[in-house]
Amino acid sequence: MENSNPNNNKSAGNVGKVALVLEGGAMRGLYTAGVLDVFMENGIKIDTIFAVSAGALFGINYKSKQIGRALRYNLKYAHDKRYMGLYSLITTGDVMNREFCFNKLVYELDPFDIETYNNSQIEFYAVVTNVESGEAEYIKIKDGGKDLEYLRASGSMPFVSNIVEINNNKYLDGAVADPIPLKIALDMGYKKIIVVQTRPADYTKTKSWLPFGWVYKKYPKFVKTAENAYIKYNETLKLIKKYESEGEIIALRPSKTIKMRRVEKNLNKLQAIYDVGVKDCIENLERIKKYIAE
Question: Distance between CA 19 and CA 195 in Å, rounded?
Answer without folding.
Answer: 8
